[in-house]
Design a protein that fits this description.
Blueprint: E1 18-20, H1 26-29, E2 34-36, E3 40-42, E4 52-56, E5 62-68, E6 74-81, H2 86-105, E7 110-115, E8 124-129, E9 132-137, H3 140-144, H4 146-157, E10 161-166, H5 170-173, E11 179-185, E12 191-195, E13 198-202, H6 217-226, E14 231-235, H7 241-248, E15 253-258, H8 261-273, E16 281-285, H9 288-294, E17 302-305, H10 317-334, E18 339-345, H11 352-366, E19 370-377, E20 395-401
Parallel strand pairs: 1-4, 9-10, 14-15, 14-17, 15-16, 17-18
Antiparallel strand pairs: 1-3, 2-6, 4-5, 5-6, 7-8, 8-9, 10-11, 12-13, 18-20, 19-20
């Protein structure tokens, strides 16, 4: 067994490490990157939250390197497994993540390059919006690694800009404030991206997520494939991703409903950018629940429901389940026979099995016959590590309502 501080690549991180309780190294050997507070036997004497330390089993075996924050029950996240030094592992994992996206999408103008734990880079999201990058940092440890990440991204990709959009609730638990701003280069706004022949204006400042819902890429393509000659309702439409895909797929008409006037203004700009006539769509600035409540019948052939996350923490699960059931009941009970419902949940705390049960209850309540045509998940550039299934957050069903 090697002594702490002598491991390959560990020079920068010398000192006694974090020691796990007996038997608690099993998850690490199974390549899972999270370490909860209850698994930790001891911290080094001069421990500092957010720094990287070697991690040892109770028997003294080096199992990896990780950063820790004692403010959080999810205390540690590994950036390296085994004896590979942390900086070497980070560089390798970032390179592998970029190569994977090149294999999946080539040089797509907009895609996710790093998806946190699924790419062995916990606490980090990197999205490409040609010609630059947007990064999102959710943990104290990754915040401390930000200069290194900016350096590596600049070396590997040479982006025109790197913009930080770290506006996630988890930062509060980590003791961090939300951050947004330009880190390198110059930011051109709006950016115009092309996704499979559809152009979108993207404003990074003030936008949701990192600027665009990249995780629905394949589902937008699905809508395009099935929308021909259909009248479509795009609920929670944001800037019109599904609506534009439907029109590109020869939908007869699309109605967009969103509570954000600003989002609908941008949707209108996107319609004009793609040369769709005003007569082919209608913008409705209204809460989706209120909209459905007011409709005795829905005249649409395809209804799309892509709401924001109703469960942002585990304590929200019950209330969120009721909200998802209510939303889908309102749609199902008003939809005409032989129509389609494409419905989603992006709440991590509502897993696929629970979401299907919610849909089942909504169908019973609405008194409708419902068939699952296909189930859907996040886009290919949002991979889920087989060793870290917690990265699977987006789920959906294409349903046939009769």
């Amino acid at each position: 067994m090697k002594k702490p501080g002598t491991e390959r690549g560990g020079k920068q991180f010398e000192g006694r490490g974090v020691v796990l309780k007996p038997g608690r190294e099993k998850s690490v050997h199974n390549r899972h990157q999270w370490i909860f507070s209850g698994a930790i036997q001891s911290f080094p004497p001069a421990f500092t939250d957010g720094k990287i330390y070697p991690v040892f089993s109770a028997g003294g075996l080096l199992v990896g390197y990780g950063y820790f924050n004692r403010k959080c029950s999810l205390t540690g996240r590994l950036v390296s497994l085994g004896q590979t030094g942390p900086e070497e592992a980070i560089r390798k994992n970032l390179t592998k993540a970029i190569r994977l996206r090149e294999k999946v999408y080539g040089q797509a103008e907009a895609c996710r390059l790093v998806n946190g734990e699924s790419d062995s880079l916990p606490g980090l999201v990197v999205d490409r919006y040609q010609p630059g990058l947007v990064i999102q940092i959710s943990t104290l440890g990754m915040e401390n690694l930000k200069p290194l990440m900016v350096q590596l991204l600049s070396e590997l990709i040479k982006p025109a800009f790197i913009y930080e959009k770290s506006m996630v609730p988890s930062r509060k638990e980590e003791g961090l404030e939300e951050k947004e701003g330009l880190l390198t280069g110059q930011l051109p706004e709006p950016l115009i991206i092309n996704e499979q022949g559809i152009k979108f204006k993207v404003y990074l400042t003030g936008a949701q997520k990192t600027g665009f819902f990249l995780d629905q890429r394949e589902m937008r393509q699905l809508v395009r494939e099935i929308a021909a000659e259909k009248k479509v309702l795009d609920g929670f439409s944001y800037t019109g991703g599904f609506a534009l895909s439907a029109l590109k797929g020869q939908a007869s008409r699309v109605d967009l409903v969103d509570s954000s006037h600003q989002a609908l203004d941008l949707a209108r700009e996107n319609m004009a950018l793609n040369v769709f006539r005003d007569s082919s769509f209608r913008l409705i600035n209204q809460d989706m629940f209120a909209f459905l409540n007011e409709q005795p019948k829905l005249p649409y052939d395809l209804v799309i429901l892509d709401p924001p996350a109703f469960a942002k923490k585990k304590a929200d699960q019950r209330q969120a389940s009721r909200a998802y059931q209510r939303l889908n009941y309102l749609a199902m009970s008003r939809m005409k026979a032989e129509s389609f419902l494409l419905t989603f949940s992006c709440s991590y705390y509502i897993n696929r099995e629970l979401f299907q049960k919610i849909i089942f209850q909504a169908a019973l309540q609405a008194g409708r016959q419902v068939k699952i045509i296909t189930s859907n998940r996040q886009a290919y550039d949002h991979p889920v590590s087989i060793f870290h299934p917690e990265s699977d957050y987006l789920k959906g069903f294409l349903l046939y309502i009769s």
